[in-house]
């Protein structure tokens, strides 16, 4: 620590995937971080079950993807409300979803966070937050009537849909209430005649049975026009009764490891920042878990916020940089709420919905429609608001093959250190000279692209740029296609995203 009176730079509430990923990003950015979680430790509950292409790319950018691939299984297809989607190999090196349980994701992220020096305080529930012009004081209940406080520059709520941090910060959470009840459980099904059943629709709703590992299945039942909050706790018996109502049998269901519930409530924080308190993941947005987008959106929230907050706490960029977090991520979650509402409606029982599904299914057979939905579900097509006319600006950078003076590489490998990269693909010394005042924060790489054209979801194939400025999260802040390199635009992008030039 370089400032007296602080226990840490950032306190993160919640040691789930979003909080852990944020802790890793902050440590890579040089910030000190403490994660506080109300639980006594890992519960082992399986929870979410997959990672999409853009999140796989992010993990690849940081050099830890192999850990996750070794623990999961790549799936050949995805879906939109149970209608199958085919992922295009040209859109990403990792276009297909990875089936891996959240419990395994959390263990891998926690291991990585510990390697980077992040600290987790279990049995530490946030009970109060006071902020002033210099920092925040976070009050913690430690489970044994004792109280503790942590003084930090910033606090981030990654503490789920019922976020205490959001409530303490006074941030509204508007949206639409649940219209259906869904139960899920990890159970044994000795009499199941099939390996899996995916979204079989019935007069009252739909159900799925998915093989998790030898001997264990996840059962999911969804019944419409029921509201979970009014029906008591989720229990094994309620899950069994729901499956019998929908499927006519329970296939000998027994031995539950975990039972929970969810609904199609859709809510989003009206703002992601209140002074020195920020929100990420489910604390900022909840929705129907169609297409497995929730965990991925939370992790990508963390990757967007981490480098920005790291620059600010280290005094390298002004606090106003944090406003771009809400400006960029709020519309992303808003679109997720929109598409999951559509998926919930498309799953409803009834003849009208049957007809609608037939029409949508026939449209998905068209490549453009399939690609549009794949880009939306995976997050590969996200384009943040940005100044600049080049089609790459605001988008995530393709992982193009490169030739460098040291050999071969890939664009995403340049982001291992989570630092900005000015990638010069045409040997333009003028471009490099513009960045002289930022070399303490920006890595300058000269290389050649192996391909003349780069595939960009949402934009098609475009000519490889002459030079581009890549943010630590993999999104492009500036690019030029050749000719005069618009040095003033590059200088503006450097100052906007990475603070003023160093005085020499």
Automatic annotation (TrEMBL):
Q: Which domain of life is it from?
A: Bacteria
InterPro entries noted in UniProt: FAD-bd, FAD/NAD-bd_sf, RIFMO-like
Which Gene Ontology molecular-function terms are recorded? monooxygenase activity
Q: Name one Pfam family in it.
A: Rng_hyd_C
> What are the transmembrane regions?
none
This protein's UniProt keywords: FAD, Flavoprotein, Monooxygenase, Oxidoreductase
Q: What is this protein called?
A: FAD-dependent monooxygenase
């Amino acid at each position: 620590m370089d400032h007296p009176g602080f226990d840490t730079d950032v306190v993160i509430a919640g040691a789930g995937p979003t909080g852990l990923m944020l802790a890793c990003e902050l440590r890579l950015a040089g910030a000190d971080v403490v994660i506080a979680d109300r639980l006594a430790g890992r519960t082992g509950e399986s929870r979410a079950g997959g990672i999409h292409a853009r999140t796989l790319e992010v993990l690849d950018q940081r050099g830890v993807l192999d850990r996750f691939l070794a623990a999961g299984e790549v799936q050949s297809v995805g879906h939109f409300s149970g209608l199958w989607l085919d992922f295009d190999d040209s859109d990403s090196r990792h276009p297909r979803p990875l089936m891996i349980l959240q419990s395994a994701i959390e263990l891998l992220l926690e291991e990585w966070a510990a390697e980077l020096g992040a600290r987790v305080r279990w049995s530490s529930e946030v009970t109060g937050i006071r902020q002033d012009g210099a920092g925040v004081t976070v009050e913690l209940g430690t489970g044994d009537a004792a109280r503790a406080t942590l003084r930090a520059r910033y606090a981030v709520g990654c503490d789920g849909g019922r976020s205490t941090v959001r409530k303490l910060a006074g941030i509204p959470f508007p949206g639409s209430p649940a219209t259906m009840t869904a139960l899920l459980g990890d159970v044994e099904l000795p009499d199941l005649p099939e390996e899996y059943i995916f979204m079989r629709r019935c007069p009252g709703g739909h159900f799925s049975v998915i093989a998790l590992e030898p001997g264990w299945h996840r059962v999911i039942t969804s019944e419409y026009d029921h509201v979970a909050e009014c029906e008591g706790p989720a229990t094994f018996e309620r899950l069994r009764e729901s499956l019998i109502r929908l499927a006519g049998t329970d296939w000998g269901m027994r031995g539950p490891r975990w039972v929970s519930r969810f609904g199609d409530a859709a809510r989003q924080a009206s703002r992601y920042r209140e002074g020195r308190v920020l929100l990420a993941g489910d604390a900022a947005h909840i929705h129907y878990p169609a297409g497995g987008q929730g965990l991925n959106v939370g992790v990508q929230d963390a990757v967007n916020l981490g480098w920005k907050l790291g620059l600010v706490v280290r005094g390298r960029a002004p606090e106003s940089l944090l406003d771009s977090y809400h400006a960029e991520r709020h519309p992303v979650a808003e679109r997720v709420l929109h598409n999951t509402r559509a998926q919930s409606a498309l799953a409803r029982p009834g003849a009208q919905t049957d007809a609608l599904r037939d029409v949508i299914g026939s449209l998905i057979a068209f490549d453009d429609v399939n690609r549009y939905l794949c880009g939306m579900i995976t997050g590969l097509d996200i384009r943040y608001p940005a100044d600049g006319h080049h089609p790459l600006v605001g988008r995530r950078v393709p992982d193009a093959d490169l030739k460098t003076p040291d050999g071969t590489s890939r664009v995403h490998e340049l982001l291992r250190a989570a630092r900005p990269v000015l990638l010069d693909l045409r040997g333009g010394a003028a471009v490099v000279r513009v960045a002289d005042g930022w070399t303490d924060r920006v890595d300058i790489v000269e290389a050649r692209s192996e391909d003349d054209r780069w595939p960009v979801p949402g934009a098609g194939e475009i000519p490889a740029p002459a030079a581009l400025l890549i943010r630590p999260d993999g999104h492009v802040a500036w690019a030029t296609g050749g000719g005069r390199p618009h040095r003033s635009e590059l200088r503006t992008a450097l100052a906007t995203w990475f603070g003023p030039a160093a005085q020499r």
